[in-house]
Amino acid sequence: KAGVTQTPRYLIKTRGQQVTLSCSPISGHRSVSWYQQTPGQGLQFLFEYFSETQRNKGNFPGRFSGRQFSNSRSEMNVSTLELGDSALYLCASSLGSSGEQFFGPGTRLTVL
Amino acid sequence: QQPVQSPQAVILREGEDAVINCSSSKALYSVHWYRQKHGEAPVFLMILLKGGEQKGHEKISASFNEKKQQSSLYLTASQLSYSGTYFCGTERVNSGYALNFGKGTSLLVTP
């Protein structure tokens, strides 16, 4: 069974640009969550999608947005990039609520 | 609301025990524990649902005190492979499905 995949694995952008990250969950998983990981803050919850609906959102500015498609694949978008957005972005999929989450390898975003 | 983990870091010799604590100021529905090795994705260890039950397998177990909104992860007779960063993730009651992780506890097991 294939694991969670994320593309691209690495990205370098400059301030002001926007970026789209993609996540393909494990087959059959309908829930996808996104996290931002930085050395100082650990894993911070961005948002969670289930069956194309955003069920919850973390405390991030509106520049961070996401969506989920009918095949459960998810994308997150960050507009007007800032230096502080440099981080590892992880997505995780699960069957549903309160279940074990399976993490992807992450996308390393560097903003110059 | 990010849960608070303690200690931030711990160094053990192989065979020693360790306890990692996780506390929240909000009523919790569940607590998740994950371990992340350097350069890898976090890997699930266990989930504890409200009810105060203790779970575990082999030498890693955990408890959840619903009244105190605290969970503890117990690592006994540590092995070199236990090294990594441990994160607790908490799901609050009536908050929808949102897993808030602590900042992590770095564990290093030495020979």
Features:
heterodimer, A: 112 residues, mainly beta, 7-stranded mixed β-sheet, 4-stranded antiparallel β-sheet, globular, B: 111 residues, 5-stranded antiparallel β-sheet, 0% helix
Q: What can be said about this structure in brief?
A:
Chain A is built from no helices and 11 strands.
General description of the model:
The complex is a heterodimer of chains A (112) and B (111). Chain A is mainly beta and 112 residues long. Chain A contains no helices and eleven strands. Chain A has strands at 5-7, 10-13, 19-24, 31-38, 42-50, 53-57, 64-68, 74-78, 87-94, 102-103, 107-111. In chain A, the strands form two sheets. In chain A, strands 2, 4, 5, 6, 9, 10 and 11 form a seven-stranded mixed beta sheet that branches. In chain A, a hairpin with a 7-residue loop joins β9 and β10 (102-103). The radius of gyration of chain B is 13 Å and the shape is globular. The N and C termini of chain B lie far apart (37 Å). In chain B, strands 2, 4, 5, 9, 10 and 11 form a six-stranded mixed beta sheet that branches. In chain B, strands 1-3-8-7-6 form a five-stranded antiparallel beta sheet, with no helix packed on it. In chain B, β7 (60-65) and β8 (70-75) form a beta hairpin. Chain B is 0% helix and 56% strand. Chain B is built from no helices and eleven strands. With 111 residues, chain B is mostly beta strands. Chains A and B meet through β4, β5, β6 and β10 of A and β4, β5, β9 and β10 of B.
